[in-house]
Amino acid sequence: MLNPQAVRRYHDQGFLVLPDAFPEASLAPVREAITRQVAAFDPSDHQGVFSTLDRDEGRDERFLQSAESVSSFLEADALDDDGRLTTAPERAINKIGHALHDHIAELGDFCRQPFIGEVLRSLGHEQPELWQSMVIFKQPQIGGEVRWHQDATYLYSTPPSVIGLWVALEDASADNGCLLVQPGGHRGPLRERYRVDWHSRKGQLEALDATPWPAPEDVLALEVPAGGAVLFSDHLPHASAANRSGRSRTALSLHFADASSGWDTDNWLQRPNLPRFRV
């Protein structure tokens, strides 16, 4: 359980860093499972490119289906103008998502750790449910920038209850694209909503509020060692820079919502064919 000071810090700042959240013994099976997944990756059958800089116009049917599967998405800079890989396949993947906890045993076991449920209940969840799991790679030299956003733009619940848990599988620092946050920014408005029209199965990013994204002087870089974790509110503005270093920055990203909170039917991520995953 989190102590009262940590709970207050989370609610005041919109995020909480746990530098030594997960011991190596709990991370090793996750890393091994990810290594197997990457080794089995067929570049001729990838699920497309993932980039946040196109304002989500590149989301297609394969992306929507990944809500209930394990799919690989490439870095934009991993392909040339003719769609051929410019790097080794294992260095081309941007992320794998978005239901790893349902289909990969080691990921499911990791997410069922009592520690995770206890932390979420400390922050106010009565029945935490895991909706999304993904591995984000931030490949050396070509790891793409992630633009400023709020998770409630894509994972909208009523009342708002989504909590992100970002687990560093490798050291994350300012030079290889660690998380950037705006402390206290979760108290601001939701700036955008990404809604899917399920008749056409097309999504659109809609502007809600003209509040600007944080100025440089309001941004904090969260340097987290391997095994560390960050918890953050679904209204917290966050981003990450491109990785132009020679070191990768792999992380496991999980998103939970309270079972008592309504999950919006316009959200891109829907799980009608998978069981609820409570922790």
Description:
- By secondary structure, the chain is of the alpha+beta class.
- It contains six helices and 15 strands.
- The protein has helices at residues 4-13, 24-39, 61-65, 100-103, 105-111, 114-122, and strands at 15-18, 70-74, 93-98, 128-136, 146-149, 157-158, 163-168, 179-181, 192-197, 202-207, 220-222, 229-233, 238-240, 251-258, 262-263.
- Strands 1-12-7-14-4-3-2 form a seven-stranded antiparallel sheet.
- Strand 9 and strand 10 (202-207) form a beta hairpin.
- The radius of gyration is 18 Å and the shape is globular.
- The model has no long low-confidence stretch (mean pLDDT 94).
Describe the structure using short key phrases.
279 residues, alpha+beta, seven-stranded antiparallel beta sheet, 6 helices
Could you provide a short overview of the structure?
Helix content is 18%, strand content 26%. The chain has helices spanning 4-13, 24-39, 61-65, 100-103, 105-111, 114-122, and strands at 15-18, 70-74, 93-98, 128-136, 146-149, 157-158, 163-168, 179-181, 192-197, 202-207, 220-222, 229-233, 238-240, 251-258, 262-263. 41% of the residues are buried.
- Could you name the ranges where pLDDT drops below 50 across 5 or more consecutive residues? none
How many β-strand runs? Answer: 15
The main β sheet shows up as:
7 strands, antiparallel
- As for the CATH topology, it is Jelly Rolls
Radius of gyration: 18 Å
CATH architecture: Sandwich
Taken in chain order, the helices and strands follow as: HEHHEEHHHEEEEEEEEEEEE
Q: Mean pLDDT, nearest integer? A: 94
List the strand order in the largest sheet.
Answer: 1-12-7-14-4-3-2
User: What is the overall number of helices?
Assistant: 6
Helix content: 10-25%
Give the domain tally. 1
Q: What is the fourth-level CATH superfamily? A: q2cbj1_9rhob like domain
